[in-house]
Design goal:
Elements (H helix, E strand, L loop, with lengths): L13 E7 L6 H14 L5 E8 L5 H7 L6 E7 L5 H11 L4 E5 L10 H5 L6 E7 L6 H18 L10 E5 L13 H11 L3 E7 L14 H16 L12
Parallel strand pairs: 1-2, 1-4, 2-3, 5-7
Antiparallel strand pairs: 4-6, 5-6
Helix pairs in contact: 5-7
């Protein structure tokens, strides 16, 4: 396949989903940088959805304050913290544009690198960023390798970096998911592959977190991921419901 970008008019309309939990220090900057990145590419039909997953700080208010003329920002708040997967499912279900751009809101990704994903995007594929160099603790890297070793054994190959929160895919791909925790990315990719969508990998840069606290290595988060993996492995019907690409 030739890796060339589509002409400007071929870019899809985009719903950006930014999951956020206690990210008051960085969320407004992330929203503004994301809007600027999309506008710089000439994309005028986009929205930014900030999913406040029960934050105890001013995340929702700071996100709302970042809205500028011509930039549509919607903040959807969970009354309590429900988990990463639940936040993504809320965002994917609320999306109204042709494609969904998923990016974590903690400042560890550069939204300008969506151009790398758009260069390969099509309505029949999921474009998966992978972290060229992970800037996480060794504990998180250890859990990641152990967990996704099990994922490959149970479901076969998916993406190079399954949990990288920098993805672009047709809106339908994100509908009807079940996971409330970190397994949501695995569920999305395995279901998409089984339904006939192509999975493509693109390297993106990963930056150290400078504010807030990462929760991915918390014992409760890890245990939930393993429980959801077990449930998914034993109930393959959870992977049904996605129509093949046209």
């Amino acid at each position: 396949m030739t890796e060339q970008g589509p002409p400007m008019h071929a870019y899809p309309s985009i719903s950006t989903v930014l999951p956020a939990y206690n990210e008051e220090a960085v969320i407004a900057t992330t929203v503004r940088r994301t809007a600027a990145a999309l506008a710089a590419l000439g994309i005028t039909d986009f929205e930014i959805l900030v999913i406040d997953d029960g934050s105890s700080d001013a995340t929702a208010a700071r996100a709302s304050s970042a809205e500028n003329p011509g930039t549509r920002v919607r903040v959807v708040s969970h009354p309590r913290n429900r988990g990463y997967g639940a936040a993504l499912r809320t965002g994917f279900d609320a999306a109204t544009r042709d494609a969904v751009f998923l990016m974590d809101s903690d400042g560890q990704f550069d939204p300008n690198e969506i151009s790398r994903l758009l260069a390969l995007y099509g309505p029949d594929r999921v474009i998966c960023g992978y972290r060229i160099r992970r800037r996480d603790t060794w504990v998180r890297r250890f859990y990641h390798r152990a967990f996704f070793g099990l994922v490959r054994l149970g479901f076969g190959p998916t993406a190079r970096d399954v949990n990288c929160a920098f993805k672009l895919f047709p809106r339908a791909v994100g509908q009807g998911l079940h996971a409330d925790g970190a397994l949501v990315s695995t569920e999305l990719l395995v279901r998409a592959r089984r339904s006939g969508y192509g999975l493509m990998n693109v390297g993106v840069h990963h930056y150290p977190r400078t504010t807030g606290r990462a929760t991915g290595a918390d014992v409760g988060v890890v245990m939930r991921a393993f429980r959801e993996l077990w449930e998914l492995r034993n109930d393959p019907a959870m992977l049904d419901g996605l129509e093949p690409p046209a």
